[in-house]
């Protein structure tokens, strides 16, 4: 019976006996399916197959090499490299280069030491998505054909994520939300804030979940009337734009009528809030991609939900919207970004290895790469990850600067009415009215401006107006 696989973060211990890998009794050995077990557990298997997914092991167990990358991560003494049984000396040379690349890349999974010899440890420079993809690569068995297919696929995935992170590093987070909502409005749609948008979607569902067919006008009026009690700012125009967003997402079955308004009926697959919300979120992500915006799952969760709880939900939507051509398009986008910024870190030198990774066949049924191609892929992955890490260390503003509060183009001269009357504000931190007395004082008009107005008008100005 298959055994439950461990979480990806628990890759330094055997998932069968739960002992941490070491250089003696629990030496790590990776299988072609990318699962890694200790040598002791491997030789106790009743059949020559992975204990997790039952993938057959084609190589003799005693010929499977140890995973030296994992041994160096646990701080164990790494034994001499044992010779591998391959068809030719040339293949063995390619294998050796690939193995060394994997071991060097694995070091990025180690926490980095604190500044000036401090014993304190800080997290890896790589993001969790990059770490997760790198763990997949580190656990691949290169002497198995299936392992070589998987390591190439992992290399492509690492390259694609590297491009995304480099584009994110060059974006101005202060302008990101403004650019996103401008792109949404340009398509006749609107996002009203996490709380208000959620209520609007639930009211659309309430009106149509039983299969009713309503005209757009009637649907919008129903939602506005129900929303007004909690959100007095709800209007027919804004709710109409929310309905348009769902229409763009093909959530409605539309029945046209002669000389009368068309009827809109919610499709059966979207008659639950989870399904409707997922399609709604996917449409906004799609609009962002059309506009050339790259937004991380954390940022998406904050923008659409006002929290960081929905990172996985947003990541799954992003992954689903990715196409085989997305990688190549992202490389082109990065090139344009670098031209605009002057490329002080010489990231344009990564274009050739990134294009090589983008051209890898993403099909799961793709044939196994030749040893020569595998070496080229591993060297390319090593180059792009080194480039990303060096950029983060030396040029990333996020790494060297403490986050600055977003400059507010409008002074906050009065308290938010929604917060005062309803106990909550759908606009959150982007609200142009103050939510606390401290905020009111912080964003009130500067004294120099007040003095100038006093001199010009000679009248007292009520700053709380």
TrEMBL record:
Q: Report the stretches of sequence that form zinc fingers (C3H1-type).
A: 410-438
Q: Where is the C3H1-type domain?
A: 410-438
Q: Which GO terms describe its cellular component?
A: cytoplasmic stress granule; P-body
Instruction: State the source organism's domain of life.
Output: Eukaryota
Q: Which Gene3D superfamilies match?
A: 1.20.120.1790, Zinc finger, CCCH-type (4.10.1000.10), Zinc/RING finger domain, C3HC4 (zinc finger) (3.30.40.10)
**Biological process GO annotation list?**
nuclear-transcribed mRNA catabolic process, deadenylation-dependent decay; protein polyubiquitination; ubiquitin-dependent protein catabolic process
**GO MF entries:** double-stranded RNA binding; mRNA binding; RNA stem-loop binding; ubiquitin protein ligase activity; zinc ion binding
The UniProt entry, under InterPro entries, shows: ROQ_II (IPR041523), Roquin_1_2-like_ROQ (IPR048575), Roquin_domain (IPR052249), Znf_CCCH (IPR000571), Znf_CCCH_sf (IPR036855), Znf_RING (IPR001841), Znf_RING/FYVE/PHD (IPR013083), Znf_RING_CS (IPR017907)
Coiled-coil annotation reads none
Enzyme class name: transferase
Task: Please report the stretch or stretches of sequence annotated as the RING-type domain.
Answer: 14-54
**Enzyme Commission number(s) from the entry:** 2.3.2.27
- What name does this protein carry? RING-type E3 ubiquitin transferase
